[in-house]
Specification:
- With 315 residues, this protein is an alpha/beta fold.
- It has 2 domains: 240 residues, SGNH hydrolase (Rossmann fold, 3-Layer(aba) Sandwich); 53 residues.
- Helices cover 46% and strands 14% of the residues.
- The protein has 9 helices and 10 strands.
- A 5-stranded parallel beta sheet has the order 2-1-5-9-10, sandwiched between helices. A 3-stranded antiparallel beta sheet has the order 7-6-8, with no helix packed on it.
- It is globular.
- The N and C termini lie far apart (49 Å).
Length: 315
């Protein structure tokens, strides 16, 4: 039969994950989507302790700050449009009370440090090589501050690679057994321009390739290629034609499972998915005998799974 698309062959990575492993994800949209999939299936996950970060410099610096346990102070914040902002964080940390803003930032840093210490793998998703400087420093988020206060520039491959190694040298001491997996976001940053986005993605992909070739503990997951070369169709995107839709995310998740989970772990995932679907079922007649049997099945399966795997927890 004639093929009408190019299919990315499934593969197993050099390491496998089990339920007892801690998994940390940070960066652009892939981190958020895969973290949600993993959390729903009861894995031990920490996602984006600084919020969504798009450029590699801000992403790498965030982990230096986590490892070194930086303490943010109120004078580190920038006031704009009635809110206090950290230029190193996503806007979800912004707020009207500077004490609360730095308090939450510092709590997240401490929590991330504790988690990272024992993590098995760190997924880093890069979004763009375009960066913005504010007062001479590259920032993670512009927080809608007027454009004229920033200088825009395009990172080169050497800058990205060198910045990673500054962070990675500390990371290897902090958690010597940690695996690092890069991904490249398929979301196009068209605000920079379509042609400019293509250049940006090429720089990031080349930098990732160099790093994965030079380090046995640094790998690459092909989320970018799955969208751009395998699915390769706008029907797998949301209405904005930029972000992958649920069908595309599910396709990437299926590839992710085959890549990182052995058959035993995938069997547990299937049981957890079935149980979660049962828990989320909304009955038409909650007083019926059928629904009471349904609830009894849920409790029985919770105990069964919890008995075999004490790391699986339900509220």
């Amino acid at each position: 039969m004639e093929q009408f698309r190019t299919i990315l062959s499934r593969r197993k990575d050099s390491f496998q994950l089990v339920y007892s492993d801690r998994i940390m994800l940070s960066g652009s949209c892939f981190a958020e989507h895969m973290a949600t999939k993993l959390q729903e299936r009861k894995f031990s996950v920490l996602s984006n302790p600084y919020g969504i970060l798009f450029n590699p410099i801000s992403l790498f610096q965030s982990f230096q700050e986590i490892i070194n346990q930086r303490i943010y102070k109120e004078q580190d914040l920038v006031f704009h449009d009635e809110l206090e902002h950290s230029m190193n964080h996503h806007s979800r940390f912004s707020g009207t009370n500077p004490t609360k803003v730095v308090g939450e930032i510092n709590r997240q840093i401490q929590s991330a440090r504790d988690f990272l210490q024992d993590a098995k793998v760190l997924f880093l998703t890069l979004g763009t090589a375009w960066v913005y400087r504010y007062d001479g420093s590259i920032v993670a988020n512009c927080h809608k501050i007027p454009n004229h206060q920033f200088e825009k520039e395009l990172l080169d491959i050497h800058t990205i690679v060198d910045s990673f190694y500054i962070m990675y040298d500390q990371l290897k001491i902090f958690n010597p057994n940690l695996q690092v997996v890069f991904t490249l976001s398929p979301v196009r940053h068209i605000k920079d321009g379509i042609e400019e986005n293509s250049v940006s993605k090429a720089i990031l992909r080349t930098a990732i390739h160099q790093l994965s070739q030079e380090n046995k503990q640094v790998n690459y997951f092909p989320a970018y290629e799955l969208l751009m070369d395998d699915l390769r169709d706008y029907r797998f995107y949301n209405a904005d034609m930029l972000h992958p839709n649920e069908q595309a995310i599910d396709y990437v998740w299926a590839y992710f499972k085959d890549c990182y989970f052995a058959s035993e772990t995938q069997d547990i995932i299937q049981r957890v998915e079935k149980l979660e679907a049962a828990i989320n079922h909304k009955p038409r007649f909650p007083e019926s005998d059928a629904y009471q049997k349904h609830l009894a099945f849920i409790e029985k399966e919770k105990k069964a799974l919890g008995g075999y795997y004490d790391f699986l927890k339900w509220e």
